[in-house]
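Title: Prediction job returns without error message
Component: structure pipeline
Severity: low
Priority: P3
Assignee: unassigned

Description:
Job completed but the reporter wants confirmation the result is attached to the right record. Sequence as submitted:
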Amino acid sequence: MINLDAWESSIPLQEKQLQSIAVWKQQGEQKPLPLKFEEDQNIPISRPGTPLRVLKQREGSLRPSSRPGTPILNQSTRGRHPLHPVHPIHTPQQFHDWFALIERSIQHSQEAHFRSHLSQLTDQLDKCTELTNKLNHVDDEVVRMLSAWKSIEDGGRSLQEASEQLVDEKNRLIEVTDAISARLAYFQELERATRMLNHPGDDLVLQPDFLITVERVDICLEYLQNHRDFHEADIYILRFQQCLIRAMSLIKIFFTASFRNLSAEVERQFGEKIISTISATHLLYPKFATLAMQMAPLLAELERRVVAYPTDLGSLLEECHTTYFTVRKSLLTPHVINEVKGFDPAHGDLVDLTRAGCGYLRQLCESEFTLYRRFFSSGEEHLYRYLETLCDFLYDDLRPHILHEQRISVLCEVCTVLQALMVLGSDVSNLDGDSDEDEEDRASVVPETPQEMKETPGMQKLQIGVLLQMILQDAQTRLVFKTQAIVQSDIRLHVPTEGDLRYPEKLMEHQGAQEQPPLDINPDSDDDQERIRPNQSSWYPSVRKAAWIMTVLREFVKPEIFRDIAREAVSFCRESLEVASQRIAAKDGPDSAVDAKLFLIYHLLVLKEL
């Protein structure tokens, strides 16, 4: 147990507590009168009493005292002062006993406030001890609670980590499940696609789910080809390819059957009665264009997949092209033959026949090209091969006339018509001044839809020059052949007359003939385009003929061919000039040799300018 000084040093008192102690100290210094004097003032007694009895009675009810106090008088003495002797004092010993009692009472009364203060301090010490015990108990409880809280916190943290691990594992399993489901969906699509494609009925390809199924099969096939490490991926790839081939085969079968049925219906209407040109055009184009609106999406799917799988699906698209061209050719051949016969190629002029025939072919080819684009977006090579077969009917009639044409002017007009159509892309009839109404009549009878206005690589515009190339080549070949014949006959084998050798007289006459109109060199010539220009009237005939040939060929033949013929013509022309110069030098006259040299120099300069 600690002493008072240690207690005060360990627990410093506050200001109010120090003031309270000072008040108690001040009260303790003021000693009250003994109780017997206070009682004597109120109750007269013969002997003084001890105040300890009253104090003991007051404190006895609170707690028992551990120190001996003034003896409590018998109950029979009630009514007398406690310090009065019970019995009268007869001996000195009794007096000493009584006096000792009085001293103890006085001493006790003098120490009463100390004992009271000590009692209060003891009570406070007990309370502080009890409070300390309670604080220690609370501290122990707090330590125990802290330990329990740490244990719970550790357990909660462990539980949280375990829960987070479980959540992560759950999320991972969900992701794995979703990934497996996503991959499994590609395999499960096979059963649905097989059931869909094996559904009976000719109109299966027209169902809304057909193209969706084909697209899914294509996606699954591409996915499995990129993941060949999957289990049984090769088997599923093979089965999906079979489904894709099956779907494209259904498109081919439906297109072939529909196209042939429509062709049979049109042929039956042609055979039942005589049909006008407008009705025939309606049967040949708008009816097929209506079918194209139904078939174009299906054929587009086939063409798109042929690019990815040419080996497996290329033959199906080839069959569709073959069916299309075969049916169209069987329908158009009689009409094309009748139209060509209507031009009267046996008696008509070659230029008019070329202009009319090419105009009809341009209209026909544009209509066929537009109709073909309604169905397909590929196969341009096959299309031009088919259009060439239609052009062959006119080509077979034009080619004999071109090969037997003797007039270079006619051949030049034919080349002009064909080149203008190939280069400018305009209607041939406009070259001869036809009206706008005729141009509208020759327009394609299959107008393009807004969907066809979209760009299609290689199929934007009809290249009519490819179809007319053979006719142009025949005309150019004939033109080159005729010019070579003229070079041989009129330049190389030219025999000069006396009028051709009148030099320098012709040069002098040239000064007065510059204002005269052009004259024919040879009125009997078959080439009415050869005219004498004012600056050419003094030229030697072979030079003038070479200049005219080069003027004609420059616009209608290839540059390589033109250079060869021009080189040949100039070479033969120089030979003819040397012969003419020798004959001029052989004339009688003093200046014949000089005239011959001047003649040769003059015409060589002309050839250089050509």
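Comment from assignee: result matches the submitted record. Residues 39-77, 426-458, 517-532 have pLDDT under 50 and may be disordered.
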